[in-house]
Amino acid sequence: MKTQLKSLLLFLGALLIILGCEKSDSLVSRSAQSSPQLSPQLSDELSDESWAESWAESSSVDSADKIKVFVTTSTLTAIGTPPNVLKTGTFVASPELGDSGIYVMHITLYGAALDSIHCITTFYTRSGAQWTTGSRCSIVTNLGKWRIIYGTRRYANMRGHGSVVMIPDHEMATGRIWTE
Questions:
Q1: Residue 1: pLDDT band by 50, 70, 90 thresholds?
Q2: Could you tell me if residue 81 is inside a domain?
Q3: Three-state SS for 135?
Q4: H helix and E strand count, the chain
Q5: CA–CA separation, 48 vs 166, rounded Å?
């Protein structure tokens, strides 16, 4: 317990240092870099069986313009008791995403048997930009779907969706991204 607390404090300190640095790539206006305003209906949206498919089909971008990507996470800490858990860790992204860094994942278990996981994950890159995904996964199959719901700086206009495989202390997400 003491080691986990020290790890969490170290992680939070590193997060404050990374986020405290003022960096600008001039690709996005200052107003577009503000914090996301996640709607209270987000968990309702994620509970809809066809949310990822219907959202993906609504894209006006040709599938040839969508870029294949991957993100692999490694969990450092997990705090809380189901149905609400907070995980933190590191991630490695494909070169098309251009950066790696740390992530914070808010996990909520759903369903009568608490067999469905809904997650909001924010990826903080070393360059100071970030993007947030919403995902819905099954504890039974360890499979799920994700979509991008927010981004800053170079990720401000990024859209995307894909699938995720959960293995102990890791998630491996693959999919396609594009800009609108």
A1: low
A2: yes
A3: strand
A4: 3, 8
A5: 20
